[in-house]
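## retry 2 of 3
previous attempt timed out at serialization; input unchanged, resubmitting
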Amino acid sequence: MLFEFGFYSSLLLIPFIHGIVYALLLFWKGKAHQINANFWLGAFLILCSAYVAPWMLGFAGWYDNQPYRDVLFYVPFQQLFWMGPLLYFYTQSLLNPAFKLKPKLLWHFAPGLLYNLGMLYLWVYDAFIYKGYYFYADQADKDFDPWYQYCGLASMVVYLILSLRYYQSYKNFIYDQTSFAEKILFRWIKNYLIAFLVMLLLPVVFDVLGLFYPELKTYTGSWWFFLFFSLITFYIGLSGYANSVQTSIPFELSVFDPKAMELETAETMLIEPEAQNNLAKELDDALIWKAKIESLLAQEKLYENPELTLTELAKKLQTNTSVVSKAINQGFEMNFNDLINHYRIEAVKEMLRQNAHKKSTLLGIAYDCGFNSKATFNRAFKKNTGLSPKAYLETA
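## retry succeeded, writing output
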């Protein structure tokens, strides 16, 4: 197989191979540990490596020699319409262990399939009907047509937005349902979404730079774009393999359902007289449940359980989670996670008043009161008091 090793082709070859290797490792790890998310990320890495392939192989001599030139012309290496859906489904599979690719979701891949069928038609026509370069008379690879590049970029932007909305909804859900939200927010998800954003900004940045440095629009100058793209791919592959995490909290949301994403506020609602009466009744009920929650937390000290959930609290109160969640939101004007952390901080402050810090460390006291990490404790303490734990001790 032809491959002319040179400065440009060799440097792109290294991250190209790494992308393939990490994809295979993710497939293996996903199968061995039953982590479905790894298959989605592995597929995405393969597409990222394929995205770089035309430039790498072009510098390796493929565009100048047959039959390699036809391979680059007729094989759609850059699957821009499939990269967005893969990242979106990767996000869902991380945050929803039960996520599966249902038939109704296959439409996400329809644009990419249509593009591939179009490329197949070009090859069949040129190879068997025209028997020459009809569609490729200009000797320009169709993967780099502006319409395809811009439409592909727009598609990926849409799926990035959908992924961010899904993650934000998950965060709201977790803060309402658990008392250990920060433990299962998964910093990796935020990091790879930022990396994907940077990946999408690269063509915009290089287009702007090209206005001032025209050499960046040449074939050789464009190499820098693909090098940076490859480095981001390498980061996503390496970090994704090391951070194969999944939540144990079931979460599912359709971001295409307007009702599921709608956030109503008192300012935007048109409240009829009957609705006002219902609202008043709900507020009264919330105050009753607030008193029950305060009594239960004070007596049984449920907040000392570092993995306390809204479901467990509801069972103790012999009601459902919807009632308790509404009571906390309306009665305490905070979410479940913040409420439990508030009680934990108050317990820590009480222990400090009793000079417990002279017999134990601050972290030890925090753990006794229900916190499960130093970072969470420090953030919650500063949010509650405006001071760090050490600064609070100095002023006490």
